[in-house]
């Protein structure tokens, strides 16, 4: 029996499903998955969430913050490790970009995924900066 992956926009994704797919991917190590309130806030304020489901089970998610015309920050790209290397992440990125065709898609790669993005056509930018805490600001 052939199973088809269903991709869709799901801006009302449940916290439990979001945490589960992050936990089942390598991204869970770098997200506050033990803080459901914070995870709920991440979902509430992400305004473009593209999902991949197999037989109803969430196996991939791309959560973005976007103005739809200038920039799209792809904050979370997670695919369950059992389903990686099948093009699901690339399709989640493609569908995110299709929803925001005029906006530049921007993401920060996890250390283990930094070599993946150039392989699928993303360009590296050397001038990215971040501030984790107000105490770091001089």
Molecular structure report:
The protein is α+β, with helices and mostly antiparallel strands and 138 residues long. The protein has a single domain, classed as Gcn5-related N-acetyltransferase (GNAT) (Aminopeptidase), CATH 3.40.630.30. It is 25% helix and 25% strand. It has four helices and five strands, in the order βααβββαβα. Strands 1-2-3-4-5 form a five-stranded mixed β-sheet. A hairpin with a 4-residue loop joins strand 3 and strand 4. Helix 1 crosses helix 2. The longest helix has 12 residues. The protein is globular, with a radius of gyration of 15 Å. The mean pLDDT is 92.
Provide the descriptors you would attach to this structure in a database record.
single chain, 138 residues, alpha+beta, Aminopeptidase, 5-stranded mixed β-sheet, 4 helices, globular
Briefly summarize what is shown.
With 138 residues, the chain is an alpha+beta fold.
Strand line-up in the sheet with most strands: 1-2-3-4-5
What's the total helix number? 4
Low-confidence stretches: none
- Residue fraction in strands: 15-25%
| DSSP strand tally | 5
Q: Can you tell me the CATH class?
A: Alpha Beta
Provide the gyration radius in Å: 15 Å
The domain tally reads 1
Average per-residue pLDDT, rounded, comes to: 92
């Amino acid at each position: 029996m052939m199973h088809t992956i269903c991709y869709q926009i799901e801006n009302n994704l449940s916290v439990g499903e979001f945490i589960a797919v992050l936990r089942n991917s390598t991204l869970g190590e770098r997200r506050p998955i033990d803080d459901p309130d914070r995870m709920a806030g991440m979902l509430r304020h992400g305004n473009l969430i593209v999902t991949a489901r197999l037989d109803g089970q969430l196996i991939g998610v791309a959560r973005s913050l976007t103005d739809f015309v200038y920039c799209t920050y792809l904050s979370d790209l997670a695919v369950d490790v059992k389903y990686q290397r099948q093009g699901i992440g690339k399709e989640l990125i493609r569908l995110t970009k299709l929803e925001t065709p005029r906006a530049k898609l921007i993401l920060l790669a996890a250390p283990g995924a930094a070599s993946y993005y150039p392989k699928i056509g993303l360009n590296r930018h050397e001038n990215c900066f971040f501030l984790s805490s107000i105490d770091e600001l001089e």
